[in-house]
Design goal:
This protein is α+β, with helices and mostly antiparallel strands. Helix content is about 50%, strand content about 20%. The protein folds into two domains: about 35 residues; about 100 residues. Helix 2 packs antiparallel against helix 3.
């Protein structure tokens, strides 16, 4: 191994290696394996946590916003790290939604509004207006 460095989020390690047989150089990326987490849905069902589903929802919320892939990955890593620090193997979907909400509010307010509108099942324009007013007042709850 030539060198090794942690990613910015400390969730992966990039290693530069050298083949001792042919002297070729190559890079490996080692990612942290998450403990198995189950998600408790609001209807009582349980399903395995799906990292790709979480990433998709974040990407939809940030679509066409001035948010870089690196920022999206950082938010995803923060969320996954939060899950790793929880001692429970079952996390309610509501808790996951709140964690995503809080991270998106810091990242991009429009992405936050998009996510919350789906998460809270907004039914009309008044719901959006109310949320925007809360953001303007500094109260995101």
């Amino acid at each position: 191994m030539k060198n090794s460095r942690h990613s910015d989020d400390n969730m992966s390690v990039r290693r530069r290696r050298l083949c001792e047989v042919c002297n070729s150089r190559f890079t490996t990326l080692e990612e942290l394996l998450l403990k198995p987490i189950m998600v408790l849905k609001k209807d009582g069902r349980m399903e395995p946590f799906d990292k790709q589903k979480l990433l998709t929802s974040i990407m939809l919320a940030t679509n066409k916003r001035p948010v870089t892939p690196a920022q999206i990955n950082m938010v995803l890593s923060k969320i996954l790290y939060k899950f790793e620090s929880v001692k429970e193997d079952v996390i309610p979907a509501r808790v996951i939604g709140e964690i995503v909400k809080n991270n998106l509010l810091v990242l991009d307010k429009v992405a936050y509004i998009r996510f919350v509108s789906v998460y809270m099942d907004f039914s009309d324009a008044d719901d959006f207006c109310s949320l925007v007013e809360k953001i303007k007042e500094g109260s995101d709850k």
